[in-house]
Amino acid sequence: MKQHWTATTIAEALDLLEAATKQLDSQVLALAPGVSYSERKEIERQTPLLFTVDFDMTALMQHTTDHHVFNEQINNG
């Protein structure tokens, strides 16, 4: 099953990452219910999965730079 999710804010991106984590945890528990923590971690290490994250932080980095420049101008003003 393939899924494609899109986030347009930091909050949405964090929510999607949390949702993806919960889905993975749920699938591992369904794959091997009742196994110990160490067995579960071994299953996680051995089970293939394609997970790709592609995100554009250009606007965020520009906003951060602008914020620091503004603060520097205020502090040195």
**Average pLDDT for all residues:** 92
End-to-end separation: 56 Å
Uncertain runs are none
Main beta sheet: none
Q: Helix count?
A: 3
What is the rounded Rg? 20 Å
Could you give the count of β-strands?
0
Helix-strand pattern: HHH
Which structural class fits the helix and strand makeup? mainly alpha
In helices, the fraction of residues equals: 55-70%
Number of domains: 1
β-strand percent reads: under 5%
Q: What overall geometry do the principal axes of the alpha carbons give?
A: elongated
Give an account of the 3D structure.
The protein has helices at 10-31, 37-46, 58-76. Helix content is 66%, strand content 0%. The chain has one domain (10-76). The termini are far apart. The longest helix is centred in the first third of the chain and has 22 residues, at 10-31. With 77 residues, it is mainly alpha-helical.
Name the descriptors.
elongated, 77 residues, 3 helices
Explain the layout of strands and helices.
Elements: H1 10-31, H2 37-46, H3 58-76
Put the structure in a nutshell.
By secondary structure, the protein is an all-alpha fold. It has 3 helices and no strands.
